[in-house]
Structure formats: C-alpha cells, structure tokens
What we know:
Blueprint (H helix, E strand, L loop, with lengths): L15 H26 L11 H25 L10 H31 L18 H4 L3 H40 L10 H11 L2
Helix pairs in contact: 1-2, 2-3, 3-5
Amino acid sequence: xxxxxxxxxxxxxxxTVAITLHWAIAALIVLDFLLAMSFSQFNPGDALYLRDAYxxxxxxxxxxxxxxxxxxxxxxxxxxxPLPDMPWLLRALARASHFLLYVFMIAAPxxxxxxxxxxxxxxxxxxLFTWAWPTLPALASMPHAQxxxxxxxxxxxxxxxxxxxxxxxxxxxxxxxxxxxxxxxDVLSRMLPRIAAERRxxxxxx
Length: 206
C-alpha cells in the first residue's frame, strides 16, 4: 500500500480532550462489564470471583456517567473530523451506532444510579468522594413496597442495557479495524494518542 492511497493520519485528528475521554470511557466500560460478570456469574471461592467486584463496578459506573456527559458536551461544542469518503449507507450506520452508544453510556449507569437510590445505597468513587454519587431523594423517599416494585423493574433493565451496550461495542471495534486494515483510511488513527498515530503513520509510509 503506497502512501498516496492512505489519507494522512494528521489531516483530521480528534483533539486531546476528546481522545482522552474516548479511551478512558472505553476502558471503564470494559472493566465495568468484567466486574459485573465476576460478581453475577461466580461465587466466593470460584477462580474468577473478586470480593471487591461489586463496589468497583459501582465506582466505574459513577465515573462513566459524568465522563460521558462531558464527552457529549465537548463533542457538541467542537467540530469533529469528517467521515472519510464512503457510501451513504455506511455513513448512516456509523452515525446510528455512535448515537446508540451514547444512549447506552448514559442510560446504563443512570439506571444503576436509580437502582442504588431505591436501595438507599450511596456509592463512593473507588473509596473517595461519596458525596459525588448521592441517592436521589425522590426515589429514596418512596414507601418500601413502591421502591421494591420499581427496583424489580429497573434492575433487569440495567442488566439488559449492559449486555446491549457490549453488543454495540463489538461491531464498533470491528468497524474501526475494518477502516484501518481493509479501507486503509484514518478513522482509527485519528482517535489514537499522537505517539501511536505517528508510529502507525511512519509504518504506512513508502
């Protein structure tokens, strides 16, 4: 593949804030899902059981929600790099997948917050800043029977949203790899940290 056939990786990069938020949220989502699998699928004594998985899962969720809101606000306030030249259907699918991922990244931790509020359970962020993730008074003040009813509806919803989000994440990753390995454009490179992008750009030069 010659250099002229691959668009420059520096022509349309995301800014540092967008890149940092993107990879921080991605890492937290994967970690959060693995932690949830640990405390929901394994019992004490099992090889993959982690005693602190539940509290760490809550901490990750407590970070994902505000970071996603910050990422969304940053995206709305800053022009993002344009998509490469490709069929309109692929463009539509790319925009739809990004929209659904944002819905997931807000809805999943928000539903977890509602569940914790119904349980009267305050959550810290890795043992710090308990005040930053309080219970919602409107839910915590409900009678017990009403809170139990809402809890039994929201907890399965939270679980389904988590699995749905991971289902969306897989084609998102595969699409980025397809752009990079098959189409040889800069969709993936422009979201990589600059050092990684420079190394990839150097390897692609003739």
